[in-house]
Every structure is written in structure tokens, then in C-alpha cells.
Amino acid sequence: MSYRRDFVIGLKETRDFYTRLLLRSWIKGIIGFGLAGGLTAWYYLNLFEIQVSTPVEILISLAAAVVVMALVALVMALATRWKVAKESRRSGRERYVQHTLIDGFGLHVTVDDREARLGFDKLMKVEETKKAFYLYLAANQAWILPKDQMEDQAAECARLREIFSTVIESKRLKLQKNG
Q1: Cα(70)–Cα(67) distance, rounded to whole angstroms?
Q2: Does the pLDDT of residue 3 top 80, yes or no?
Q3: For a designed S-S bond to 110, which of 13, 84, 85, 115 qualifies (C-beta 3.0 to 4.6 A apart)?
Q4: Percent of the chain scored above 90 by pLDDT?
Q5: How crowded is residue 173: how many other Cβ atoms within 10 Å of its Cβ?
């Protein structure tokens, strides 16, 4: 039971990770902004006495809510992507090679000359998305295993799912059924 691969973690992978974290943590706020947008549309329809049927009034309010939520999420995502790019340039570290070994003893990750070893019991969670596996060390820190860098993506993803399903309890796993 082992898996070994080197991944190049660049701006794209880092942006995706932090944008995902931000949108997940702000989902209730985004919904709140959407509700405010929908109520505002309903208010102005009534304020200006625009004569539309109740179903159309509801549809306009819902459309306004969806548009506001999409705009808020877009602005937040773009701001996060900009901040990540700025921080990467500032630190001089826009890309790095992450040597990853997953075996029966846990995770072994080496970046530059720094090596980290972590038992599976120390992982906060493992999450799989369409783009990557995220091995969370903390709520806002994870090792990233980008799928687009895997030679045989289907086989490697299946192997990773098998390993993680074997060594990590299901409540800490969010894996896709078949990628």
C-alpha cells in the first residue's frame, strides 16, 4: 500500500485551494447578501408600484437574489485570487515541487529541503474535488495533489481513494465515488 508522485504546486493550485476555502467559509454570508438583494428587488417593485403578477414578482426577487449571490461570490473569488498571486510574488515562491509518498506509515512530503512526516491519524480530513485531493493538516492548510498532474488519473485516483478509505475513518473523508 503506497503511492508516490512529485507534484508542481503553482499559482493555479494555490488559488483554487484558497478560493475554495474562502467561498466555503462565506457561504452563509453570500446567501445573506442574496436574500438582501431579493428583498431589495421586492421592495422596489412595491415602492414604484410596478404592476406585475405575484409569480412574476417572486421570480424577479429570486433572480435578483441569485445575481447578487453570484456577483458577491465572483468578487470574493477574484479578490482572493489577486491576494494569493500578490503574496506568491512577494514571497518569491510562485511554484514548488512537492515530493509526496503515502505508505502504511502515513504521509511523507518533501518541499525543497524541508521534510514532513505525518501519521494518518493526524490528518484533519481528506477531500477530493474534480481538480485535486486536499490533505488537510488544519482548517486552512493542506497538501494538494492535483489530478491534472497524474499520469493515469483514473487509476491513481482510484488508488488514493482505496488507500484513504482503508486508513482513515469515513467521517474525515470526502471522496468522490469514481472521480
Answers
A1: 5
A2: yes
A3: 115
A4: 92
A5: 15
Of 64, 73, 63, give the one whose Cα is nearest residue 30.
73
How far is residue 157 from each of residues 124, 125, 130, measured CA to CA in Å?
20, 16, 11
Q: How far apart are CA 161 and CA 149, in angstroms?
A: 17
Would you mind telling me the total number of residues written for the chain in this entry?
Answer: 179
Cα dist. 98→30, 69, 172 in Å?
34, 36, 23
Backbone phi, psi, residue 112, to 5°: 55, -120
Alpha-carbon distances, residue 158 vs 19, 28, 63 (angstroms): 26, 33, 40
Q: Name the nearest CA neighbour of 155 among 173, 179, 135.
A: 179
Determine contact, residues 81/19, Cβ cutoff 8 Å.
yes
Share of the chain above pLDDT 70, in %: 99
Residue 82: exposed, middle, or buried by beta-carbon count in 10 A (0-12, 13-18, 19+)? Answer: exposed
Say whether pLDDT at 179 is over 80.
no
